[in-house]
Design goal:
The complex is a heterodimer of chains A (244) and B (264). In chain A, a hairpin with a 2-residue loop joins strand 2 (40-49) and strand 3 (52-60). Chain A has helices at residues 21-30, 69-73, 100-104, 126-129, 136-140, 157-164, 203-237, and strands spanning 7-12, 40-49, 52-60, 79-81, 88-90, 110-113, 118-121, 146-150, 168-169, 182-185. The longest helix of chain A is centred in the last third of the chain and has 35 residues, at 203-237. Chain A is an alpha+beta fold and 244 residues long. Chain A has 2 domains: 7-185, Alpha-Beta Plaits, CATH 3.30.70.20; 202-244. With 264 residues, chain B is mainly α. Chain B has a domain at 97-223: Transmembrane di-heme cytochromes, Chain C (Fumarate Reductase Cytochrome B subunit). In chain B, helix 4 crosses helix 5 (98-110), helix 4 (72-96) crosses helix 7 and helix 7 (144-168) runs antiparallel to helix 8 (176-206). Chain B is elongated and about 85 Å long. Chain B starts with 8 loop residues before the first helix and ends with a helix. Classes of the chains: A alpha+beta (244), B mainly alpha (264). Chains A and B meet through helix 2 and helix 7 of A and helix 4 and helix 8 of B.
Chain lengths: 244, 264
């Protein structure tokens, strides 16, 4: 068993009945205020042609990516990937509510809570997981569509399910692949409305990174070099007792 | 500049021994209060910037400061709190000392005059080795370069304060775009002031010709020699004030004597 965990979800699309008990459990467990939610069940509508019709529902939440763009863009480091369990978490006391991560998330799995001025998202119910319980959405799932565990542990439930599955999908594209930690099995999820978008970076963030940072670095460097040259000259020439 | 004038030895010795008040206590306290606030806010503010996309703050510094403060939230809270104290005290100082200090300081020491404009035209050329034959006009209590830096600091402080307040109270700000714009503006304003601050600290604390300026930030006083050599316009203005005062005292004495004679 690997020292570091990679917690994530396996979602068996064929077992979801859209009862949305997971949404309720999540809201209760994490005190998520209405009208927001940390998790979703996406209705794929009717597929196929009569009489061969099918309908599927896709549980959806933060993908706890291995290379999360939300962490990359977070100004204060409030959003971070927990090095021990691999979950992408938000330290809401450290969140400054800029919402850059909300824009960057390719899955739109975060929201800015205007009442508190901080970002909120799925935490994998880390408070439950740390004491050995499953996330609330998993524990309450009637059909067993949601499975949670450590992908780095070959004996975990998620590893065993994945090993036995024939059709495994991550929601990635050629352009957007941050190695999400949700694996979908037994269903067609590669649909445009479910696939990730490119991370969005605001104009202010781009200007900050591409203009303000180089300008400030250049200004400070020039200023420092200027005084360094003057100071060196001063040292070489020496000082007179009555400098005039 | 008055560097060109010849001053006889005895006069030089007298000037070196005479002290002139350059800064009042309010100036000195505000200056060192600002220094203390910058010393606390700059290292913590830099450490907050954790975004790898910006890539400007070494991870070592981020980790060190987070360890010192016991986490990101505490670090940010400290930065918020010190920033609030900074803004509150500055605002209090301005309001309380508005008529006694702020207005006179602004009126007498901050505005650029024709000599300052001329100084700004000549000095940069001389700094790169040109226009050596041109004479620099006499300067006031602050030279034109110092005045420009003062404008930058005032503009920077206002910008830093305003954007900082918005970010501190982000939980009551309904527009995330406002916070998103405050970030680069706050950063740029700090960067602008710091770039100038490096020169300011060097000129004030290290550059030998300005040694007296540094110590005047503790004592409030400079020698008449320094004032005459570096701030001739201000020096002669002070001399005029002193002569006016002498005239007034003499006139009072004469008037008193005349009254006494009349009474006798």
């Amino acid at each position: 068993m690997a020292d570091k965990k990679r917690y994530g979800f396996v979602i068996d699309v064929s077992r979801c009945i859209d009862c949305r008990a997971c949404l309720v459990a999540c809201r209760v467990e994490n005190e998520v205020p209405l009208p927001h939610t940390r998790i979703w069940v996406k209705d794929q509508g009717l597929q196929g042609t009569f009489p061969d019709l099918a309908r599927s529902f896709v549980p959806y939440n933060c993908m706890h990516c291995e290379h999360p763009p939300c962490v990359e863009v977070c100004t204060s480091g409030a959003t971070y990937k927990d090095p021990d369990n691999g979950l992408v978490l938000v330290d809401q006391d450290a969140c400054i509510g800029c919402g850059l991560c909300v824009e960057a998330c390719p899955y739109d799995a975060r929201y800015l809570d205007p009442a508190r001025g901080v970002v909120d998202k799925c935490t994998g119910c880390v408070q439950r997981v740390e004491r050995g319980d499953e996330p609330a959405c998993v524990a309450t799932c009637l059909g067993g569509a949601r499975i949670f565990g450590d992908f780095n542990d070959p004996e975990s439930g998620v590893s065993k399910v994945l090993a036995g599955a024939t059709k495994v999908r991550q929601l990635v594209t050629d352009e957007v692949d941050h190695d999400p930690s949700i694996f979908y099995i037994n269903g067609d999820v590669m649909r445009a409305e479910l696939l990730p978008r490119l991370p969005r970076y605001t104009t202010s963030e781009s200007l900050w990174r591409n203009v303000a940072v180089p300008a400030v670095v250049a200004g400070i460097t020039l200023s420092f070099l200027g005084q360094a040259v003057a100071f060196t000259k001063q040292l070489i020439e020496g000082e007179q007792e009555f400098e005039e | 500049m008055s560097h060109d004038e010849y001053i006889p030895l005895a006069e030089r010795k007298r000037l070196r021994a005479t002290e002139i008040k350059k800064h009042n206590l309010a100036n000195i306290l505000t200056h060192w209060f600002n220094v203390a606030m910058w010393a606390l806010l700059l290292p913590t503010g830099i450490a907050i910037l954790a975004s790898p996309r910006l890539g400007i703050v070494p991870e070592l510094w981020q980790t060190f400061m987070r360890n010192v403060f016991g986490g990101t939230a505490n670090l940010i809270e400290f930065h918020y709190s010190v920033g609030l104290v900074w803004m509150a005290v500055l605002t209090f100082n301005i309001l309380v000392g508005f008529r006694r200090y702020f207005i006179p300081f602004t009126r007498e020491r901050m505005f650029l005059d024709a000599d300052d404009i001329e100084w700004l035209k000549v000095k940069p050329l001389q700094m790169i080795g040109l226009a050596k034959d041109k004479k620099l006009p006499a300067q006031d209590v602050y030279n034109a370069g110092q005045k420009l830096y003062m404008y930058m600091v005032i503009l920077g402080t206002l910008t830093i304060g305003l954007t900082g307040l918005i970010m501190t109270f982000h939980n009551v700000i309904a527009w995330p775009w406002l916070i998103q714009w405050c970030l680069p503006i706050h950063f740029s304003a700090v960067g602008m002031v710091v770039a100038g601050l490096i020169i300011h600290v060097y000129m004030g604390a290290v550059f030998p010709e300005e040694n007296e300026a540094f110590f005047s930030m503790f004592t409030g006083k400079v020698s008449a020699w320094y004032a005459r050599r570096h701030h001739a316009k201000w020096y002669w203005h002070k001399m005029e004030e002193e002569m006016d005062w002498e005239d007034r005292v003499l006139a009072e004495g004469r008037a008193l004597k005349t009254e006494e004679s009349a009474a006798d």
